[in-house]
Design brief:
Elements: H1 13-23, E1 28-31, H2 35-49, H3 54-65, H4 72-81, E2 85-88, H5 94-106, E3 111-114, E4 128-131, E5 135-138, E6 142-145, H6 148-155, E7 168-171, H7 176-187, H8 201-213, H9 220-228, H10 231-236, H11 239-255, E8 259-263, E9 280-283, H12 285-292, H13 297-309, H14 317-325, H15 341-351, H16 367-384, H17 389-396, H18 400-423, H19 428-443, H20 450-453, H21 460-468, H22 474-479, H23 482-489, H24 491-500
Parallel strand pairs: 1-3, 1-4, 2-3, 4-7
Antiparallel strand pairs: 5-6, 8-9
Helix pairs in contact: 2-4, 3-4, 8-11, 8-12, 9-11, 12-18, 13-18, 14-16, 14-19, 15-16, 16-19, 18-19, 23-24
Length: about 525
């Protein structure tokens, strides 16, 4: 190990390392284990640096403008950026993460404090990769060492060939014994074994159905021969047990009506003793659609059951989003804390007649997971009631980036649900209600704004402004004059709205550098 002397400008050895990086006119990534740690560490560095430049001030304004109503997290990030540092984690809006990464490449940001999510798949000009936390909390074992593979990913961010020919990977140790342990475990240690994803049931179900839907295999023998060649079989070794697992999954797909038997072996009409039990399977039209949607067949089966139940209950937006939240694809769900149990259980009871998924027994192992789905559905429902992202952060401790990620997954699941309903010829009124809930969730609006957010360039803020001014439907958009529309949403969006309702709009001359403004009266003819 090489030893380098770092100038001791402060009593904090970590800040001295940051100062040395900046003195060398270099950049660094700092990895910590939680979002809160990333934010605090970035703020501590910003307080030390203090000064910034105009480019950083402009970037801070862009960061604040990403959300229509910036949260406290946005304000904290903007404050850090004004000093040339930033924090980066999954709780940030995707656009904010993009701005941070782009400006780090351009040199406007010198230090990024991040969770390990930044360690994979990014190419950034970091001279130093500093790992401050080599342990992470585990619910079963407390604080445990991070995997060696993860350490290598983080260290590998330093000295990227496209930016530099040298880089430094640094781990922070508090004592000589800890330094020796880090060197033994991570520098000299061998990476962990990797395991096939097919060992997970959801992945196995999906791939088995896709093989049948794509007609790559048909008979049990062909299925087994295919999986024998996989990395999963190589690791599993016990081919007899592997065959039992595949037959169980095949039976599930058949029971859920995603595949069906179409006869015996397809090679000939004669069946030998060796071919007994070698049935031929084919994906049904429903199974084909599930495969095309890349949906876990277990989730799809739940959707089929819920669409059938929808005929017997009064369908509500909460019931629709609750169904989406019960799927494995929405994991991790918002966890119900002990002090919240009674509150969430009461809300669940209020919506019980409208739920599309039956509530498990209080003593059922799945009950806690069901309450987590309730809490996540409550968060979605509050978003649909036009509460702000700051409200969601304060109430549910869910950050804008996490909210957006879950909203994206929910939109995909809603579309899968609707597509499956079409294959099953579900009542159009039911599908219409589900789609209305989808639109409300996507835009975060109450029911009365649904007609307005269907217009391009109209989100929850503009829709509410239009609605408050008695522009509440397509007919109202046709009726209102361009001058009023322009005052509410701006000229460009106003013209777009008129075009979307089939009205011809005037050509707007380019103003260039001409002083003064054009009067809108000349464009109002015919509206």
């Amino acid at each position: 190990m090489e030893t380098a002397l770092i100038a001791q400008k402060t009593r904090d050895s970590f800040l001295n390392l940051i100062a040395d990086t900046l003195d060398k006119k270099k950049q660094a990534l700092v990895f910590v284990n939680t979002k809160k740690s990333a934010e605090k560490q970035a703020e501590d560095i910003a307080k030390y640096i203090k000064k910034g430049n105009e480019a950083q001030n402009e970037l801070a304004r862009k960061i604040l403008g990403v959300l229509s109503q910036p949260t406290h997290q946005c304000a904290r990030l903007a404050g850090c950026i004004r000093a040339g540092t930033a924090f980066h984690h999954s709780g940030l809006h995707p656009r904010q993460r993009e701005l941070i990464e782009d400006n780090f490449r351009d040199g406007n940001i010198r230090i990024i404090c991040a969770t390990p999510t930044l360690a994979a798949g990014v190419d950034l000009p970091a001279y130093r990769s500093i790992i401050k936390d080599l342990k992470r909390f585990d619910g079963n074992y407390g604080m445990v060492p991070i995997p060696i593979l993860e350490y290598q990913q983080m260290i590998g961010r330093a000295g990227r060939p496209s930016f530099d020919n040298v880089g430094e990977g640094i781990c922070i140790a508090k004592s000589e014994s800890e330094k020796d342990e880090i060197y033994r475990r991570y520098v000299l240690g061998a990476p962990e074994e990797i395991y096939s994803k097919l060992a997970a049931e959801p992945a196995l179900r999906m791939y088995l159905l896709s093989l049948l839907a794509g007609d790559f295999v048909s008979s049990k023998v062909e299925i087994m021969n295919f999986f024998k060649k996989t990395f999963w079989a190589h690791q599993y070794r016990d081919l007899g047990e592997l065959q039992n697992i595949l037959e169980q999954q095949l039976a599930n797909l058949e029971g859920w009506l995603f595949v069906k038997k179409v006869g015996g072996p397809r090679s000939s009409d004669f069946v030998s003793a060796d071919e007994v039990g070698n049935e031929v399977y084919k994906a049904t039209s429903l199974g084909m659609r599930v495969s095309e949607l890349y949906l876990d067949p277990l989730t799809a089966h739940g959707f089929v059951t819920s669409l059938d139940r929808a005929r017997e209950v009064t369908l509500t937006p909460f019931g629709c989003v609750h169904l989406i939240c019960t799927t494995k694809e929405m994991f991790p769900l918002l966890h119900v804390k002990t002090k919240e149990w009674d509150t969430i259980a009461q809300k669940s009871l209020e919506h019980m007649p409208n739920l599309l998924v039956s509530e498990p027994s209080l003593y059922d192992p799945d009950y806690e997971e069901f309450l987590d789905a309730d809490k996540t559905a409550c968060m979605f429902h509050d978003w649909m009631e036009e509460n702000t992202e700051q409200y969601l952060l304060d109430t549910y401790d869910v950050r804008p980036g996490e909210t957006r990620n879950k909203l994206d997954i929910a939109q995909w699941l809603f579309r899968c649900l609707i597509e499956m309903g079409r294959v099953l010829n579900t009542d159009k009124k039911i599908l219409s209600e589900i789609n209305r809930a989808r639109i409300r969730l996507k835009n975060g609006v109450k029911d009365e704004l649904v007609p307005l957010v269907k217009f391009r360039n109209i989100g929850r803020v503009r829709a509410r402004k239009l609605f408050a001014n008695k522009i509440q439907s397509i007919a109202d958009v046709k009726r209102v004059d361009l001058t009023m529309l322009r005052q509410l949403v701006g000229l460009k969006v106003a013209l777009s709205l008129k075009e979307q309702v089939g009205e011809k709009t005037p050509d707007i001359p380019k103003q260039g550098k001409r002083k003064g403004q054009f009067g809108l009266a000349r464009f109002d003819t015919g509206f």
